[in-house]
Amino acid sequence: MSEHAxxxxxxxxxxxxxxxxxxxAWIRASSVYIAFAALVILDLIVTPGFRNPAVIRSLLFxxxxxxxIALGQSLAIxxxxxxxxxxxxxxxxxxxxxxxxxLGQGASITFGIGAGLACGILNGLLIAVLRIDPLISSLSxxxxxxxxxxxLLGGARMDLPFAGPIPWLGxxxxxxxxxxxxxxxxxxxxxxxxxxxxAPGHYAIYAGASRTAAFLAGQPVRATLAFVYGLxxxxxxxxxxxxxxxxxxxxxxxxxxxxxxxxxxxxxxxxTPLSGGRISVVGTIFGVLLLEVLDASFIMNDISSTYxxxxxxxxxxxxxxxxxxxx
Amino acid sequence: MLLETRGLGKSFGxxxxxxxxxxxxxxxxxxxxxxxNGAGKSTLIKLLTGFHPPSAGExxxxxxxxxxxxxxxxxxxxxxxxxxxINLIPERSVAANIFLAREPRQFGLLTNTRKMEADAAAxxxxxxxxIDPRQPLRxxxxxxxxxxxxARVVSLGARVVIMDEPTSAxxxxxxxxxxGVVEQLRREGRGIVYVSHRLSECYRLCDRLxxxxxxxxxxxxxxxxxxxxxxxxAMLGRESTAGxxxxxxxxxxATDAAAAAPIALSVRGLSWRTRVRDVSIAVRRGEIxxxxxxxxxxxxxxxxxxxxxxxxxxxxxxxxxxRLFHARPAASxxxxxxxxxxxxxxxxxxxxLSVRANLTAAVLPRISRFGVVSRRxxxxxVNRYIxxxxxxxxxxxxxxxxxxxGNQQKVLIARALCTEPRVVMLDxxxxxxxxxxxxxxxxxxxxxxxxGLGVVVTSSEVEEVLELSDRLxxxxxxxxxxxxxxxxxxxxxxxxxxAAAEAPRA
Lengths: 327, 506
Fold this sequence. Notes:
Chain A is mainly alpha-helical. Chain A has helices spanning about 1-10, 15-45, 55-80, 85-100, 105-130, 135-150, 165-170, 180-195, 200-210, 210-215, 220-245, 260-270, 280-300, 305-325; strands at about 160, 175, 175-180, 250. Chain A has a single domain (about 30-325), classed as ABC transporter involved in vitamin B12 uptake, BtuC (Orthogonal Bundle). In chain A, the strands form two sheets. In chain A, strands 1-4 form a two-stranded antiparallel sheet. In chain A, strands 2-3 form a two-stranded antiparallel ribbon. The longest helix of chain A has about 30 residues, at about 15-45. Chain A starts with a helix and ends with a helix. Chain B is α/β, with parallel strands linked by helices and about 500 residues long. Chain B has three domains: about 5-225, Rossmann fold, CATH 3.40.50.300; about 250-335 and about 420-505, P-loop containing nucleotide triphosphate hydrolases (Rossmann fold, 3-Layer(aba) Sandwich), CATH 3.40.50.300; about 350-420, no CATH class. Helices cover about 35% and strands about 25% of the residues of chain B. A six-stranded mixed beta sheet of chain B has the order 7-10-11-4-12-13, sandwiched between helices. The interface between A and B is large, with 32 and 44 residues.
């Protein structure tokens, strides 16, 4: 019965419903940009000091790591999965950087990013080989990676030296644009290329659109999932480096806490539906910028953080509603 | 009459799922309810058990009109169904499951476990079931769990027991236990509605058989008065399509040529669980082999076991003389085997993706270099097949879900052809598409054979598979029941083979 009902719609491709749908698609595809523009305009009018370049610089410094984890998140969501571990993996990367500083900053950067990649691969193998639900495997990693990060540094914060490549990453800018933001942009372009133009990227989207159809079409569904979560872990490792550099310390109790929620919200607001099969890279970046500007707006308008959380939640719900109205 | 329906009907919106069914069940009778998918069996069961209210007609219990507003109400009145999926609690004991939610109490509060277990043991032994009532339900096999379900509804006072495909999940010995239980229920004067696809089983157990098709009752007779051929014809709806399709297939010239061609696909001794039993087939280049069989005969399972979508327990598959080891869809495709699933919506299309993405889903490695997909080669393929198969679409970027069923199917056929297969297996390729598109799909399939591919095809309609194929293999309960050359044959010949098929006993 349901089959007939579902077949009926596409078998009559009338012009009216299609026109309606493309309007909806336009709203859905653009909602994040509209919301971002509206928020910026509002801030320019009401928020004192919003035009200050220092504000923009700080905002971009904060955005860079979140953009990286939101990209990985959007791909995981594109496969109809989720990666809750990214915030904790950032913290683990930070701790590994901290304990390996004695080997030189170059080596500690490598080890930090490597720790992120290792977490991602572990997560990917749990999902692809043991067939554990991504929600569960990444949730356990969320707990375990944070715990390991704290254990490595004995639960304490470790300050970084004032010179060397890591502190440089935490401060260097070109005009008002932080180097980390430029690296994040470069990573996003590379990421977009992988997703839109390469076979592994295509496979991820196919797997999100229909696992069974992908399997029957001979696609390497499991290897794809391992790749997706491995990539997400790698990006979280780099994000951990950026956050550590900005903070000037390896701090397993502070870095990446609840960042997974911002990453998920940014990806979904940006036009990557939780039902998988679609991914929007540019939308995800603007999703992050939107949330960061929102945070900054609350702080600069002296709205207490408790109310800010509620307002932010209301805003996210509003943005998602706008999208659903389009879908 | 224990249970009776008069002019019973049910519509969902404008769709009539069941209309004008007048069915009756006597005490002490086993009444077989048969029909293909979508015939209305489930709807009838749901009306009888109070799951849905009927849209028309009435239900009478002991000659009195009744209306059940919930399955609970039906159960209280003595009508209960036992489904394939067991909805009991695996972690609790057999006794606790039998008396679930109505445990015998002492002091008004505590469960009287001893009494409960004794009562459960009595019920179980009455049906010849050697089950310890204290053991947890999950420690029993699926078959015995189902018996516990039956024991539960009987102890609830069910006088009408509806069994929905009770044997579909059972192994050989468990089937015999079930038969024993059914016999005991009959002796106790209960009425049993027995839903099954297995002809031999129904002929062995049932006193009367009723066939539904397209929501209507098309046949109802005592088992002795209903020959298998007539039953099969009623299930498949011979008379409704006889006028539209030419009965006998003209002897095609291709048949002779094909007889000498080398073997494209050879399958030997293929078995998968109880669903595919020792199936051996061979298809020559340029030949169209049809697989016929009733619902549940194992057509889809045979395809999936050959293709590697399911891992067969035994058997060899060779494509053009080269054996397929460790079959997986990816390996099968590389060796030149393509498969089109009958379930287009959930196993075929990627609904959110474009025609372009759907059409090229199986050939990304071939159109990629160093992992980068060549958009140019992708576009070439898509445009070529849109043209060759006459796919009606607004363009390569249109969403596949916006296409009609027939055009979606052509995209999926194109997906298979992109892989340059030597053998294509098409599972009910014209399912759910309109008549015009059907003819085009047929033409496409014949073209494939003409180009020298081996083709294996099924259909839920006997006429169609007879018309399409050069040779026909008839499956029954997972095993080959017969084979015939289709030239000059009538659908009746196929029906005769289907009807004659004896159930292989495990």
